[in-house]
Amino acid sequence: MLPSASRMRRGYEFADAIRRGRRAGRPTLVAHLNVREADEPPLVGFVVSKAVGGAVVRNQVKRRLRHLMRSRVEALPRGSLLVVRANPPAASARSEHLAAELDVALDRLLRRRGSGSRTPTDGRS
Asked: Subunit info (predicted)?
């Protein structure tokens, strides 16, 4: 499982990651990443709504996502907040498919972060 020190628990951390972070969507999940200027270990939180299924299904999806993030948390920059939101197809997705979707989303978020800041294109020279 994901180490306890890496789990996000406070509501403001979830809100910060979702509102201020970058987003990468996939059919089975959506990932939000906000990298803060803090020298703390990365925190990961999970959101699985009732649209995914009943309580048993939601808990299974959360456990599968926590297990997948265990080996991927080291790839996140220090001080980052990551929220993984499961979409309804996550309930029936095979673990290999869920892992591939998570890898694609994380790769997109981390690659965007490394590409530098974008300059606004407003038509002025």
From this structure: Consists of a catalytic RNA component (M1 or rnpB) and a protein subunit.
Q: How far is CA 82 from CA 32, 48, 56, 108, 119, in A?
A: 6, 14, 24, 13, 25
Contact indicator for 52, 91 with CB cutoff of 8 Å: yes
pLDDT digits (tens, 9 = 90+) for 43-82: 999 999 999 999 999 999 999 999 999 999 999 999 999 9
Regarding pTM above 0.70, the answer is yes
CB 52 within 8 A of CB 88: yes
What's the rounded Cα separation, in Å, for the pair 14 and 31? Answer: 12
Structure tokens at 30: 């959506």
Alpha helices in the chain (DSSP H): 11-20, 55-70, 95-114
The angle that helices 95-114 and 55-70 make with each other, rounded to 10 degrees, is 50
Q: Does domain 4-113 have CATH number 3.30.230.10?
A: yes
